[in-house]
Amino acid sequence: MRNIHASRFALTVLAVLAASAVLDAHGVSGKDAVFLQGLTGRAIIPLMYLGAKHMVTGYDHLLFLTGVIFFLYRLKDVLLYVSLFTIGHSVTLLAGVLGGIRANSFIIDAIIGFSVVYKAFENMDGFRRFFGFQPNTKLAVLIFGFFHGFGLATKLQDFALSPNGLVANIVSFNIGVEIGQGLALAAILIALTWWRRHSAFFHHAFAFNGIVMACGFLLVGYQLSGYFLL
Q1: What is the 3-state secondary structure (H, E, C) of the chain?
Q2: Domain count of the chain?
Q3: Domain limits at 26?
Q4: What pLDDT, in 10s, does the model give residues 153-192?
């Protein structure tokens, strides 16, 4: 009975993320958009809050990170992979906004969706099963981190941000992203640790990652449809 409850809990959490995945991209809107549009100087604390909020509500980032740490049991391994992801998305977030490097947001978000597919496929041992080799997981996390950071940058590039205090504001936003990522990862790790205590974890791990992969395909399809139709 406890195993059934554990499986239902895990699938419920994933269902929430899956429902989010079919919604509009997690851009900056509402009061947050109004605030950014009227920003004329440094706003360190508000930008940290926006960064944390963006990461915590970023279902594509959370799906990818869930896949990354799904089979990581040692804290040092979790920190290593999360650090690689952090380096990747920090570099492209800062370069995209401060360096003015631009790309089509639909394509970038489609690649982010593909990163979810990739990690779930890897967790299902798909590369060994179908291709007979295992790609470098650390390198993949770093590379996809670059695209996730670029995805964050495209959201901010939608606004004509004032150059007054821009560096401090973007750095603050990035720090907020790290705070939000830490909070989200803590919650995910707690849920995974609880689920791993039950034998149902390994029994349903393949199906869980299959659903994660399906969510990734939904994200890819949604973004590509936006690219071709909008």
Answers
A1: CHHHHHHHHHHHHHHHHHHHHCCCCCCCCHHHHHHHHCCCCCCHHHHHHHHHHHHHCCHHHHHHHHHHHCCCCCHHHHHHHHHHHHHHHHHHHHHHHHCCCCCCHHHHHHHHHHHHHHHHHHHCCHHHHHHCCCCCHHHHHHHHHHHHHHHHHHHHCCCCCCCCCHHHHHHHHHHHHHHHHHHHHHHHHHHHHHHHCCCHHHHHHHHHHHHHHHHHHHHHHHHHHHHHHC
A2: 1
A3: 2-229
A4: 998 888 878 889 999 999 999 999 999 999 999 999 999 9
